[in-house]
């Protein structure tokens, strides 16, 4: 059985009369690399800050498995906040090395780990530069290197890939996936849903402070992809009036790019009927049954406002 390292029970966070987080229950186990997905203001940073202990929830508890916390929470968690937290008056090396010292690691080992973290984030060439002389993306790399330098058992990373190039983002996520595979755990947020889909094995979807889904990522994709979803190429653009008319016949049309559309058919509608329905308006040049990616499914959900 998977062993939970973290259990969040009935967490709420209220600002004035507005809930940023509303009664969230969640557990994270070793081996899991968990994607936290939600739009701006959904409550992702609030949830991370509460788990990291830098923000008090209005109610509820965050419990770590006691056997998991070896010395102190700080050394077993690697937390990177969304906003940049750095020692602005030191150089890159000292910033990252300080992360190892804060985690209580001895100097010699700390130096080895610092070098590894600099290599992972590809910033060894910047190690003597003061951090205030770096670009935003370079500063972001320093922040991540500092958060993960001690190779903790639990990585808690709030939008770590913002400002990173594609290679570095993939390299980082691939490292995190390997860490999870070795019995550690990762909880990571990002707006790059393709990246999360590639590397994560569990999904937590939140909206307006509430969890809409928490579970296996692949299962989410399998279960929520509409059964009758097609990618369709047509011979001319489909106007809003035609889209509205098809909607009344239970055919949902979502524009993708130029002459490509997603058609979602009601269970009762078959392809023959679809061709009959659309014939007066446009010609279907190609039609392919679709399996949706996390990004598609999320956008689909955002358009409909519900997960069916
Ligand atoms: N200090 C604060 N005072 C009042 N409301 C706040 C405060 N901090 C956050 N909020 C509100 O709490 C909600 C959740 O914010 P949070 O930063 O957790 O969202 P998020 O999912 O991380 O968003 P983003 O993707 O933009 O980073 C938002 O409605 C936000 O406006």
Automatic annotation (TrEMBL):
The keyword Kinase does not apply. Gene3D superfamilies: P-loop containing nucleotide triphosphate hydrolases. Residues 6-233 form the ABC transporter domain. Keywords: ATP-binding, Nucleotide-binding, Transport. Pfam families: ABC_tran. InterPro entries: AAA+_ATPase, ABC_transporter-like_ATP-bd, ABC_transporter-like_CS, ABC_transporter_ATP-binding, P-loop_NTPase. SUPFAM superfamilies: P-loop containing nucleoside triphosphate hydrolases (SSF52540). GO terms for molecular function: ATP binding; ATP hydrolysis activity. It comes from the Bacteria. Belongs to the ABC transporter superfamily. This is ABC-type Mn Zn transport system, ATPase.
């Amino acid at each position: 059985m998977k062993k939970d390292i973290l259990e969040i029970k009935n967490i709420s966070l209220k600002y004035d009369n507005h809930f940023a987080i509303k009664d969230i229950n969640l557990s994270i186990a070793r081996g899991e690399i968990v994607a936290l997905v939600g739009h701006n203001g959904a409550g992702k940073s609030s949830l991370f800050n509460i788990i990291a202990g830098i923000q008090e929830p209005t109610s509820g508890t965050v419990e770590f498995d006691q056997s998991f916390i070896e010395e102190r929470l700080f050394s077993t968690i690697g937390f990177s906040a969304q906003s940049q937290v750095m020692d602005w008056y030191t150089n890159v090396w000292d910033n990252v090395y300080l992360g190892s010292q804060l985690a209580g690691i001895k100097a010699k080992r700390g130096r080895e780990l610092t070098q590894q973290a600099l290599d992972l984030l590809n910033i060894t060439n910047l190690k003597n530069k003061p951090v205030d002389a770096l670009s935003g993306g370079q500063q972001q790399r320093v922040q991540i290197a500092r958060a993960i330098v001690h190779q903790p058992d639990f990585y808690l990373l709030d939008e770590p890939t913002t400002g990173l190039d594609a290679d570095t983002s993939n390299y980082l996520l691939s490292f995190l996936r390997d860490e999870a595979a070795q019995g550690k755990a990762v909880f990571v947020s990002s707006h790059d849903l393709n990246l999360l889909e590639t590397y994560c094995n569990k999904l937590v979807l939140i909206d307006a402070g509430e969890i809409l889904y928490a579970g296996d990522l692949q299962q989410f994709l399998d279960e929520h992809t509409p059964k009758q979803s097609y990618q369709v190429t047509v011979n001319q653009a489909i106007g809003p009036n035609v889209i509205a008319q098809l909607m009344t016949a239970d055919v949902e049309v979502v524009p993708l790019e130029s002459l490509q559309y997603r058609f979602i058919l009601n269970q009762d509608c078959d392809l023959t009927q679809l061709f009959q329905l659309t014939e007066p308006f446009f010609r279907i040049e190609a039609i392919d049954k679709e399996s949706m990616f996390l990004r598609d499914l999320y956008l689909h959900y955002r358009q409909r406002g519900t997960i069916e």
